[in-house]
Amino acid sequence: MLAGGHADLVTVLLEGGGLVVTGKTDAGRFDPGATTLHVTDAARRPAPSSPAYGFLGVPGGSPIHVIPQAFRPDVLWAGWNTEAVPRGALAGDAVDLALRSARGPGRVEVYLFGADGPERVFSSHDSAVRTTRVAVPTHAHANWVFTAPGVYELEFQATATAASGVPLSSPPTRYVIAVGPRTAEPTATTLRVDGTGTGVELASAVTGGPEHLDGGVPRGWVEFVRHTPAGDRVAGHVALTDGSGTLSLPEDAEALAFTARFVPAVGDLVAGSRSPAVANPAAPPGAVVTGVRDRYAPGETIAATALVSPERPDHTVSWWTRSNGTTTARDGDRTLGLTASGDLDGAELGFDLRDPRGEVVGSARPVALSVTAVQPTTPPSPKPTGTTPAPVAPTSTVPAPRAAPAETAAAETCVPTAVTRPAEPREVEVVTDGHFDYGPVVEGGALSARVKDDRQGAPVHRDPGGYVFHLDDTARATPPAGSGLDFLGSGPVWMVPLTQRSGIPWLGWNTQHPSVLSGVSGDVTMTLENVEGPGELAVYGQDPFGGVGERYFGTATGFPRSTIIPVGQSGVHVHAVWAFTEPGAYAVTFSFGASVGGRQTSAKSTLAFHVGPGEPRAAPTGPPVVEQVGRTSDGRECALPGGGGGLASTGLDGPVVAGLVVAAVLLIPLGFLLTSAATLAAARRRR
């Protein structure tokens, strides 16, 4: 059962020259055929009333379940992925993904939220919206809407053309998705036992289960059990075909009866069941207890049946339980209904067979009872991020320089003046496409920042200073009026979108590096320390119906400066919209803070962006440099006394530096005196 976290449900692989569709989480690959996906009621919300969402087919305000395009820690985050397919292996570096079939109690609609509204991708209702072309490599997420609770069955297939021209097609892959409260649908199992002259034939049929799963026909196995005076033994099992299974056995002179037990293939959604005991036509004399399950929860009913061979209608049955040497009579006839309670855990249940005079003429072998409280099960999911911390003001303010005293009133004063310039450009890679995640790693017991680059399939972690993320006019958009994006102003903006698009670098963040999972205690705090650039930055999520979701960080009005990223067992992977309000070069400085080995540690680094036209390599890949230079009162350059011009600022002004120098000079003789005293004391100890 997969109910939370990041999952690329439809992951396309190229294996052995053929296409394969499988599933992938941050913990690794999973088999869709053996996994139930659960969309919990945390995803439940009212349908929108906007005509733009009329394709959902339900009135506004109707309850629906939505897997959102933007990450939420309490809901499954579902998408698709072609990153493992090598570039150049497929013609046009493209794969067609098709929703071949969809069954369920309601509609399934998958769409992206674009600048102009919803962009439909897959539909269970509209045959014209069944296939989408996906570039290689791509990692995308979307909104998945289910209009009614229940069990859904989706089948996806990938097709492409190999670079050699050979057409490729994956086998269809089935996905089972439970929407809403998770309950295993009840089933009923029947058994017929027929003598064949040389043995017996056991024929079982199973009905029930979810209406839309496997066409309403339960899948799984039937286990046939022999009941003998000495104990119960499994005689064999068969896989169900169209809900039925048959087992032939040689003549059995020991079994008093047989029972069929259904074992479902999808135990999360389909309940097991067992048939009543059916007598063996060739049964020997004896008595057995049947119908007792392996375990019960307190309050459930223990339903047992007394099977007697040969049948003796004039005899009666006396039920009893035995625990710690004490036997307690229980009311019942050939069947017993007993409320499970903690004092029955480990007790034995049996019965005596009495003749018409009340004499005991036989006893059944007792069976052990198990009564245990059901432990609550919570699907794994990242923990909530909690409240957003209050905005943190940048701490990189450079102290104002202090004027040097003039030597004479008539002399022209040369004043130390702070001048800020961009960091010198160095060798960087300008990226305009592909999937990247920014995040911490642990190196040498401390945090460092790295960019995880997924463009070649196998991820690599690199220094953030080695990239410039270029958003050209492919990323340009103008938010429509009434979109709720007033904080971006009224003009065009340049956006890293919520889902991957060709021609735009898709940047997110995560806490999934193995060194973080093993080395960090608690959460990671990601703080926006400073933004150098011509405009504002806003990083935010989106509501499934176009509204603004969580505001992560930014310099725009109303945005915090930090966000909490959980770590947990598998880390968290987040994508959001990065919006820049003006073209130009930006240096965006972040810090990551966390506890490593019981000690708080942090790492600071800068991401470089170039927005719009111009030379991307000119974007600063580090924080700006502040230098102290000489300036006269009218702004002309001059030489500072002692050649002080051109030194990069360390954040300390001149008098402070001078004070430190004086202190250092004074400490030299003090250090000499302390060293001499220590040497003298040691010499005295040696004597």
UniProtKB/TrEMBL annotation:
Keyword annotations of the record: Membrane, Transmembrane, Transmembrane helix
InterPro entries xrefs: CHP03773_ABC_transptr-like, Surface-anchored_actinobac
Low complexity composition bias: residue spans: 384-412
Transmembrane segments: 656-683
Disordered: region residues: 318-337, 373-412
Domain of life: Bacteria
Signal sequence coordinates: none
Compositionally skewed regions (Polar residues) per UniProt: 318-329
Protein's UniProt name: Surface-anchored protein
